[in-house]
Each structure stands twice: as structure tokens, then as C-alpha cells.
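Quick one:
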Amino acid sequence: MNDKVASLNDNGEYDPYIISLSDEDGTDYEFEVLDDIDYNDARYLALLPVYDDPDEMLRDSGEMVILKAVPGDEPESEEYEEIQDDNEYEDVAAVFADRLQDLFEIEDE
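Output:
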């Protein structure tokens, strides 16, 4: 994992890495970056939504969100997009499931 994922701080406390992403309508959402991988010449992020309201968190499906990093408009910047190819998504999801299975309950579909 790189420095853009959750870690323990100097006090031994959990220190999540939170990013804010906007959808096509301009609505902002916050996500915790659980892991990132380089796979088949691309970079992918495994994310969980972050909620301010505990009730919203309870209503959430708890499913991990996987996005693909693509070059942004600015030099050395990234944007994130949904994975359109089902086979690519399944391959990347399997890699994340293997890497994160000790931290989370991951059900096979």
C-alpha cells in the first residue's frame, strides 16, 4: 500500500485516508481509501463511503466501491472512473478481496 491509504499515526491510532469525489451533477461524496493496487498497467482504489450521519451508514449496503484511476486534466493528477468492463471489474475485485479478507468480511457472490 502506498501513503494514500489508511495507517496508524504516531500515537498508534487509526488514521483513515479520506478523499472527496464529485459525481457528474457536482454532488460531493467522501470515501475512505481502503487499499490501492497497480494491476495490468492501471491503478485501482478500493473505497468505502464515509457518512456524517450514523443512520446513513446503517442504511448503506456496506459494499466496497472500486474505481480506476485515469490521468486528469492537470499534469500528474488523477481522476477516478467506474470500471466498465465486467471481466476487468471481476479480476480487480478478486485481487482486492484477497488482500482485504483479513480486515473485512467479504462474501462471495
